[in-house]
Amino acid sequence: MRNLCFILCALGLAANAAAQMLINGAGATFPYPIYSKWFDEYAKIDPSVRFNYQSIGSGGGQKQILARTVDFGASDGPMSDENLAKAPGKILHLPTVAGAVVVTYNLPGAPKLKLDGATVADLFLGKITRWSDKRIAALNPDVKLPGDDVVVVHRSDGSGTTYIWVDYLSSVSKEWETKVGRGTSVNWPTGLGGKGNEGVAGQIKQLPGAVGYVELIYAKQNKLPYADVKNAGGNYVTPGIESVTEAMSAATIPDDFRFSMVNPTGEKAYPIAGCTWLLVYEQQKDSEKGKKLVEFLNWAINQGESMAAALDYAPLPDNVKQRVLERIKTIQY
Predict the structure, then answer these.
(1) What is the per-residue DSSP string for 35-95?
(2) What is residue 8's predicted lDDT score, i.e. its pLDDT?
(3) Separation of alpha carbons 104 and 126, rounded Å
(4) How far apart are CA 142 and CA 187, in angstroms?
(5) How far apart are CA 332 and CA 263, in angstroms?
(6) What is the pLDDT of residues 110-169, one digit of tens each?
(7) CB 244 within 8 A of CB 251
(8) The dihedral of CA 320, 326, 331, 333: what is its sign?
(9) Which of 4, 11, 253, 296 is deepest in the core (most CB within 10 A)?
(10) What residues contact 93, with CB distance under 8 A and at least 6 apart?
(11) For 14-46, how does the pLDDT look when each residue is reduced to its tens digit (9 = 90+)?
(12) At what angle do helices 160-172 and 58-67 cross, to 10 degrees?
């Protein structure tokens, strides 16, 4: 009898798993912590659906949504007109949350540094090669800087975090804009590569003298220090929810939701911040999956946004939320 009960329970569990709809997504590592939270919470709301999200970088997310090998993509850099033109259908950009990309480093005593755009650009151009350089010292007169070599760490994969980073560097350095430019992947003048925000944070943690860029929560999770950065108003700003919210409030958001929010005006705006998007086809191929995806998207924007702040993301302002909800209504399935 006990064996029979066990078999019946196992069959019941197998049938339940088989009935569960799997929705596949891939892309940005930047929002992975909040998306993971959303998918776990949503499973309690609708146990009939399960989300499988591969955190492979924004470049991979864009490629996979173009190839329709996933049900949704995720990117921290908006898709280019050229890439959108290659799509077999209209792709919508749905902003979800915004976050800070921080300058993080591995120095003795983990000092709190202040950096400006020109200095950050010169670090990543390979023009500043020692931490005791007079330009860093001038910005941080009270910090004892080591004579260690600077080891630049950047992303090795196609990355929306990179897009935000180089978009910022292009906005503050003409030399960077001319020599390197913008993109989810660029030809780096110097440095070592790490895969994902996780890989960059891991490299910085292991390498004395390292400097790199990651989304704020990855610096916090790895107990890495991060710099205050001088903004367009001339103020040194600590990255955080309030300073990212101010940066988003200053951004001009067009109808297609493809926008940049780096180096904005605003006294307290953090200058290296960006939005992250879910990429979905307006016309869904699978009607059942399309219906479930739309239900999730509505939940994420209505209820999921309240979970953002606990993970150091800035939720969408109410006026933007309403615009996104209206756009979700245009998805057909």
Answers:
(1) HHHHHHHHHHH-TTEEEEEEE--HHHHHHHHHHT-SSEEEESSPPPHHHHHHSSSPEEEEE
(2) 41
(3) 16
(4) 35
(5) 37
(6) 999 999 999 999 999 999 999 999 999 999 999 999 999 999 999 999 898 999 999 999
(7) no
(8) positive
(9) 296
(10) 78, 79, 256, 257, 258, 277, 279
(11) 444 446 899 999 999 999 999 999 999 999 999
(12) 120
Please tell me the distance from the alpha carbon of residue 67 to that of residue 193, in angstroms, as a whole number: 26
Residue type, 169: L
Q: Alpha-carbon distance 192 to 201, whole Å?
A: 12
29 DSSP assignment: S
Buried b (16+ CB within 10 A) or exposed e, 133-164: beebeebbeebebeeeebbbbbbbbbbbbbbb
Phi, psi of 135 (to 5 degrees): -70, -40
Pick from 264, 167, 218, 199: nearest CA to 30: 218
C-beta separation of 155 from 101 below 8 A = no
pTM (2 d.p.): 0.86
Q: Name the phi and psi angles at 55, rounded to 5.
A: -85, 85
Give residue for tokens 């939720």: 315
Q: d(Cα 217, Cα 311) in Å, to the nearest integer? A: 7
Question: Which stretches of 103-159 are DSSP H helices?
Answer: 117-124, 134-139
What are the residues facing 230 on neighbouring strands? 236
Pair type for strands 192-194 and 151-155? parallel
Q: Where would I find the H helices in 173-286?
A: 174-179, 196-206, 216-221, 241-250
pLDDT of residue 16: 45
Domains of the chain: 2-97+276-328 (3.40.190.10), 100-250 (3.40.190.10)
Per-residue pLDDT of 68-98, as tens digits, reads 999 999 999 999 999 999 999 999 999 999 9
**Collapsed DSSP state (helix, strand, coil) of residue 122:** helix
Q: Are 31 and 214 in contact (CB under 8 A)?
A: no
Percent of the chain with pLDDT over 90: 91
Q: SS3 breakdown of the chain: % helix, strand, coil, rounded to 5?
A: 45, 20, 35
